[in-house]
């Protein structure tokens, strides 16, 4: 799969680290670890053998791979198969850009397979960290359970007028929240946030989370949460609203 001895050595180190700790936890040692796993292992495996290597899935047509993170019982990461550094990348914007959020919502099936049960849509969360609160220099969308308390706090937004921002404090941090309606999740939160957070500098400060506005998002809609290091009381990471232990799945 990798004939270059140097590539083999690099990949062996990445694989050892991934097997020893959470896939994102290794970032303190190598901020390119996720990219190396996808680029050096998963994509070549899919191209050459039809298998997925270290990844749970590789979709060459849609340009993403899914990796089960060892941090959590069910957490998966959606990672582009092209080099995309993070939320600040212009490659994420525009009509020709892949909608990785829609792909991540569909990929919830891998989280549910790990849990061996379906999740109501308002107990599933997708999240991207800001440039200043991430550990990897490759875009990755966290797909995991929501904290029950965060879902309960968001219940009041279940009937918000669609397409409008509303400010609220969730989990101790300030977020603006927009409900979007279905029946399918076909909007791109990167584009929505970039409307008034234009440019790589501003986008780099942002964090985004998506969850169902209610148990059935096709009926209730979806909530897009956005905060940033440029917001008073805000945050560059919405990841604390996710529960990597998935306590909501064991009620």
TrEMBL record:
Gene3D superfamilies: HIT family - CDH-like. Residues 1-29 form the signal peptide. It comes from Trinickia violacea. This is CDP-diacylglycerol pyrophosphatase. GO terms for cellular component: plasma membrane. Belongs to the Cdh family. Its main location: membrane. It catalyses: a CDP-1,2-diacyl-sn-glycerol + H2O = a 1,2-diacyl-sn-glycero-3-phosphate + CMP + 2 H(+). One of its GO terms (biological process) is CDP-diacylglycerol catabolic process. It is an enzyme of class 3 (hydrolase). Pathway: Phospholipid metabolism; CDP-diacylglycerol degradation; phosphatidate from CDP-diacylglycerol: step 1/1; Lipid metabolism. InterPro entries: CDP-diacylglyc_Pase, HIT-like_sf. Keywords: Cell membrane, Hydrolase, Lipid biosynthesis, Lipid metabolism, Membrane, Phospholipid biosynthesis, Phospholipid metabolism, Signal, Transmembrane, Transmembrane helix. Its EC number is 3.6.1.26. The lineage of its organism: Bacteria, Pseudomonadati, Pseudomonadota, Betaproteobacteria, Burkholderiales. GO terms for molecular function: CDP-diacylglycerol diphosphatase activity. It is found in: Cell membrane. It is a single-pass membrane protein. It comes from the Bacteria.
């Amino acid at each position: 799969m990798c004939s270059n001895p140097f590539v083999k050595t690099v990949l062996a180190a990445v694989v050892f680290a991934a097997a020893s700790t959470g896939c994102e936890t290794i970032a303190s040692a190598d901020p390119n670890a996720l990219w190396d796993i996808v680029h050096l292992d998963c994509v070549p495996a899919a191209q050459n053998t039809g298998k997925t290597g270290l990844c749970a899935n590789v979709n060459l047509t849609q340009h993403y791979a899914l990796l089960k993170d060892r941090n959590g019982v069910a957490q998966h990461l959606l990672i582009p198969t092209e080099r995309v550094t993070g939320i600040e990348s212009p490659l994420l914007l525009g009509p020709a850009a892949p909608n990785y959020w829609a792909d991540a919502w569909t990929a919830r099936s891998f989280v549910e397979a790990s849990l061996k049960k379906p999740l109501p849509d308002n107990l599933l969360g997708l999240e991207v960290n800001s440039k200043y609160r991430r550990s990897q220099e490759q875009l990755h969308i966290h797909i995991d359970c929501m904290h029950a308390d965060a879902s309960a706090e968001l219940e009041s937004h279940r009937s918000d007028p669609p397409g409008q921002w509303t400010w609220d404090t969730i989990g101790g941090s300030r977020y603006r929240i927009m409900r979007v309606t279905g029946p399918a999740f076909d909007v791109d939160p990167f584009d929505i946030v970039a409307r008034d957070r234009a440019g790589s500098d501003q986008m780099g400060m942002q964090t985004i989370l998506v969850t169902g506005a209610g148990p059935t998002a096709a009926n209730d809609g979806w909530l897009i949460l956005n905060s940033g290091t440029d917001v008073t009381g805000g945050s560059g990471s919405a990841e604390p609203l996710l529960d990597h232990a998935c306590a909501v799945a064991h009620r």
